[in-house]
Amino acid sequence: MEKFKNNALVKKVGFNRLVLFCVLIFMYFAFAAVSPTFISYSRILSALSYAYFLGFLALGVTFVIGTGGIDFSIGPVMFCSALVSGQLLTRSGWPLGLCLVVSILVGLLFGCFNGYMVAYWRIPPFITSMAIMQISKGVGSVFTKTQSVSWPQASEANGWYRYLVKAKIGGVEIPTGLIFLFTAAVICSIILNKTKIGRNILCLGSNKEAVRLSGVNVKRWQMTAYMICGVLVGIGAIFFVGAYTTIQPGLGDQYNNEAIACAVMGGTSMAGGIASFGGTFIGTMIIALLQEGILAMGFTKDYQLVITGIIVIIAVYMDTLSRRRKN
């Protein structure tokens, strides 16, 4: 095993990411064996549609976890962004392009608020994110007067945004959203591993006090991680409505744990200082495949919640063991 881990190609790809990819392939064939309809192209497209918005949430929360923080508000904030921008589009007549920008700005605003309270007011991230979760739910409900918002279909005016998720070329549906999500994961990876922003974010998670004593503005970089997360959550809202169209106020909590599971499963340490966007991307595909596979087998989504919770516990436990060995 050690010889395999030390292989040049394995080191370049990453042993954990390689294992995750093998798990993804195994899951696909396991579900296909149990439910033959699972291998249909429509099932694959359905799983990918779920992966797009969840992937953007997971990429965003990876930055936050990298600092040693946590954010349980990403799901409700995503819904709030979609509700506010959708209300402006469908009931106030704003241009679609501007509404897409508003969605991102709403996510950024909540990210700034969240990051400011954590970095400058020194409120624990858990408490802050729980408060933001309730606030975002309230804002979405008040703004839409507790009514659901339905974005335009692809065939309707202003429906071109749905091509960001899925487009028809020659009568065949192409998962264009996969291109955007993969590109976002690559960009996030470059930011984390090749820029000052990423280095400082990971250093915060490793040893915040040492970073502060070295003269780095800890508060600024801590807030930056939450701001990046907010932007990605706002983009996730666009891909959610691109896949599912209708948004209801007061929801979104269910996606918090799933996004965190994607990140932690992918190799991001809950203690901070270690993050992998390649792992987060593969982790997203596993959770999306799990969700679609459970539905294909005739079970309800409740089973996925149980399995996702177990995955989080196992991933965190493995991370804890790894850190103990290193220490």
Indicate the low-confidence ranges by residue numbers. Answer: none
Determine the CATH topology. Answer: ABC transporter involved in vitamin B12 uptake, BtuC
Give the end-to-end Cα distance, rounded to a whole number of Å.
22 Å
Task: Enumerate the strands of the largest sheet in spatial order, edge to edge or round the barrel.
Answer: 1-4
- Helix proportion range: over 70%
Number of strands: 4
Number of domains: 1
Name of the CATH first level = Mainly Alpha
Largest sheet, in brief, is: 2 strands, antiparallel
Number of helices: 13
CATH architecture: Orthogonal Bundle
Strand fraction band?
under 5%
Using only C-alpha atoms, the radius of gyration works out to 20 Å
Derived structural class: mainly alpha
Overall spatial form: globular
Provide the succession of SSEs.
Answer: HHHHHHHEEEHHHEHHH
Mean model confidence by pLDDT: 88
Please write out the topology.
Elements: H1 2-5, H2 8-13, H3 15-34, H4 41-66, H5 74-90, H6 96-119, H7 125-144, E1 149-150, E2 167-169, E3 172-174, H8 176-194, H9 196-213, H10 218-244, E4 246-247, H11 254-265, H12 277-296, H13 301-326
Antiparallel strand pairs: 1-4, 2-3
Helix pairs in contact: 3-12, 4-8, 4-9, 4-10, 4-11, 4-12, 5-6, 5-7, 5-10, 6-7, 6-10, 8-9, 8-12, 9-10, 11-12, 11-13, 12-13
